[in-house]
Amino acid sequence: MAYNKFLTNLALILFLLFLCLYSKSQTNFSAKDFKNKQWATSNFDSTFYKSDTIRIVRTSESIKTAWENIPNLASYFNNDNYIRFEFSNREKLDLGESYTAAGMISHNDGKYSWKFIKSKRCLLLYFNGKILSCLYALSSKTVDIKSIYTFKPVYKATEITFYRCKG
Description:
Helices cover 20% and strands 41% of the residues. The chain is an alpha+beta fold. Strands 1-2-9-8-7-6-4-3 form an 8-stranded antiparallel barrel. β4 (92-99) and β5 form a beta hairpin. The radius of gyration is 18 Å and the shape is globular.
């Protein structure tokens, strides 16, 4: 009985070690990947606030040029609700929740901010000085997002998969 428990724990430790080594080789992010950029994530059924695994996609290379090629996020997220993040240079964050069916965007009263800890590959999101989310970067890939403009090319975006930290 104790031997089986030992093997189970050993297998779990080896799996987590493999996951850490694999994900470390797959992600090399810094605060520069977020500063002055827009990102978005699906919020179907409040998944951003509930899910352990979150995928965010970069929707612009710069806040200043974001209007040149607006990605069709409603289509990309299967006409579900989504959250758009606008990361400023000074760790200020603008977070807007888009409700696709109603055609409206909601902003909570309060102050959002962010910090990226490169050594831990951890993105911290704060609301009124308290941690809203602690997200650990696992992997990234390139995805295609159609523009809302039919004459614009498909936007090549970076999508990062995060795991929600427990503290």
